[in-house]
Amino acid sequence: QQQQQQPQQPQQPQQQEGVAPKWKEDEPRDFTKVPQEMNNRFEVLDVDHALRPTIISPGKVWTKRTQKSLLAKPTESILGSDEIKDEKDSAFDLLDALTKSGALPIEHAALHIVVAATHCFDKTVLEAAVQDNVNPIEKVERSTLIMASTVHALPPVRLIREAQQARVKAASPALFIEDTVGVHQQ
């Protein structure tokens, strides 16, 4: 038997599922998927593998600051896990009452989401600069652009001032390649 070898076609860069934010401004965004999108983008765009997802866990003991009335002195109390649960339940009950169980919209409200990552260096900043002749600021800049482009669902080029684009492109070309292969869709 003879096997014929066919010339291989050059492979086109494939878009990986979940690598780029895929939402449009007129559509609601599922913010619960942002951490996974960010992790996928770390794997694809962080060539040094220096970024790690960070889990933020609230402490088991909280400090509550309250004021009985407008002119009263503020007081502090320590809350344990049972008290924290009670306070959360009270807050949700109040929200439920104010919105009539969701029948009334909450306008002019802001939702704040905290997403964190840790940038790990193999060497100290001084060692990286002197021994490896590497600018650690460029590495951190790339990390922040990966995160910001994911959070804002914009290509990195739209987050950088025009005067700085050539410098950033020279330091982190992979951030700009994805714009040409259709990873970002608007």
List its salient traits.
186 residues, mainly alpha, two-stranded antiparallel sheet, 6 helices
Task: Give a written overview of the molecule.
The protein has 186 residues and is mostly helical. The protein has helices at 34-45, 81-98, 125-131, 136-152, 165-171, 174-180; strands spanning 51-53, 62-66, 75-79, 117-119. A hairpin with an 8-residue loop joins β2 (62-66) and β3. The longest helix is centred in the middle third of the chain and has 18 residues, at 81-98. It starts with 33 loop residues before the first helix and ends in a 6-residue tail after the last helix. The relative contact order is 0.16. The model is unreliable at 1-20 and 179-186 (pLDDT under 50).
Structure described in brief:
This protein is 37% helix and 9% strand.
How many distinct helices?
6
- How many strand elements? 4
Which of globular, elongated, flat, extended, rod-shaped describes the shape?
A: extended
Largest sheet: 2 strands, antiparallel
Distance between the termini: 51 Å
The order of strands across the largest sheet is: 1-4
Q: What is the string of SSEs from the N terminus onward? A: HEEEHEHHHH
Overall pLDDT score:
82
* Class by alpha and beta content: mainly alpha
Helix content: 25-40%
Which segments are poorly predicted (pLDDT under 50) over 5 or more consecutive residues? 1-20, 179-186
The whole-angstrom Rg is: 24 Å
The amount of beta strand, in percent, is 5-15%
